[in-house]
Amino acid sequence: MDIRKTFKKWAAYQQTVRELAALDTRQLNDLGISRTDISRVARDHANSL
Questions:
Q1: Is the dihedral of CA 27, 32, 38, 43 positive or negative?
Q2: Structure confidence by residue, pLDDT tens digits, 8-19
Q3: Both ends of the chain: CA-CA distance in Å?
Q4: Rounded average pLDDT over 22-46
Q5: 3-state helix/strand/coil string of 1-48
Q6: Given pLDDT bands bounded at 50, 70 and 90, which one contains residue 30?
Q7: Where residue 1 falls among pLDDT bands split at 50, 70, 90?
Q8: Radius of gyration of the chain (CA)
Q9: Do 9 and 47 meet the contact criterion of CB atoms below 8 Å apart?
Q10: I need a labelling partner for 39 at 20 to 30 A (CA). Which of 1, 19, 32, 45 fits?
Q11: Taking each helix axis from N to C terminus, what angle separates 3-21 and 38-47, rounded to the nearest 10 degrees?
Q12: Domain boundaries of the chain, sorted by first residue
């Protein structure tokens, strides 16, 4: 795997985690996400790049 692609995925994962963690529980529920799902959602997003 290309190091640039790896870094891009890592950066996307980190950004997604930060943004979702900043939401309150109600906002996460509106999105259909629980706090325990944040890591998985971020990983899925990064892997889709």
A1: negative
A2: 999 999 999 999
A3: 13
A4: 98
A5: CCHHHHHHHHHHHHHHHHHHHCCCHHHHHHHCCCHHHHHHHHHHHHHC
A6: very high
A7: low
A8: 12
A9: yes
A10: 1
A11: 150
A12: 3-47
